[in-house]
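Model it.
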Amino acid sequence: MKSMNRRQFTRTLAAASVTARMWSGRVLGANERVRLGFIGLGNRGDQVLDAFLKHPDAEVVAICDIYEPYLDFAARKLGGAPRRYKDYRRLLEERDVDAVVISTPDHWHALQTIHACEAGKDVYVEKPLSLCIAEGRAMVEAVRKHQRVCQVGTQRRSTALCRQVAEFIRNGGIGKVTVARAFHIQNEWPKGIGRPPDGAPPPELDWEAWLGPAPQVPYNLNRAHYRFRWFYDYSGGQVTNMGVHYLDLIQWALGQEAPAAVSALGGRLAGIEDNREIPDTLEVTWEYPGGTLVTFSQWNATAAPASMRACEVEFRGTKGTLYLTSRGFDVVPDALTPHPFPVRRPTDRTLERGWRRGEAPAIEAQSVTTKEVEATVLHTRNFLDCVKSRARCNADIETGHRSTTATLLANIALRTRALLEWDARAERITNVPSANRWLRYTYRAPYTFPS
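Modeled.
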């Protein structure tokens, strides 16, 4: 996106609003093609592009990126001559674009989604939805105000595997769930992402446009492309990057939209030699209404300990435990305790020896496996169908906002080193009012925080 001064930026936003008012809408038939514009074609953008290209009713008519090699790569893959842009606002002005796919870094999601809604476009936006909670709420309001279809890229919502897990747990398959645990285990020691020096950006990258509303800082290789996730100006780290998938599934399975409280501890504890800002080690605990503790563990390790069952998410209920991986799940019944736990008196040792675990509850041990599900293909299919039917997507904007909010609260708890109580209806922290300052951040001029 070409750099511009405040007056130019304001003028282009006004033009976008005019475009939105001029948009008349196009009702799509079941067999018609959905004409797509792609904004952001890096690692994840390229993956999502591949997923959409598997659907014959998806037609990519325009592409946008501020890094020239990504545009070249996507254009070759698409064949033909899709219109190319470096300024996403120019793409939004195109009347023949029905929907946009946004796969830019997290700090750009809010502005691009809101502007797309104002321009009358439906939106597929990658996860995590936003960089802060107030952005997410503004995005929800924009989607609702302009009556747009929006799918958030938590693609597991569209898989039969995760739907089966959520329904099984909600229907009491393992009894009352008291604990759900999620894990991100990745050994980054000793070099991590490295420590490259600041320097001049490559000539094919518009660094000013890449930063957008984020603070002005010198170019650093680690702040661009995939590694931006290690810096708080552009991402919430692994708890939002991977954790949002886990929290989305856990909230789905529990039938909950938001935690009641959250705490977090962690930091750069492994002595990794890089210039990251996010933790390499993190433990987060959320408390959910109804009495369930949810944890996210980020460990700097190669694999889970031998004493632990290797899984991504673990649900522990009163009747058994469910272990979920990307390929399937196992349910292990737990034997019941038929008698009250003994009081442990010296005079009752003989009776205590008779305290035993009883029979397993009436649930079957089971193992459900699946091949590596093309979750993103299923998710993009759902989006295309909803663009035509105007139904809500599997990962609707409100759902995506709620799941992202839980992970963003974890980072606020880590920053404040406090147990935070959350009012999900008001979207405010109630017991540490000063922590509410982290619900939003100040955009760099000339960008204006959405209100």
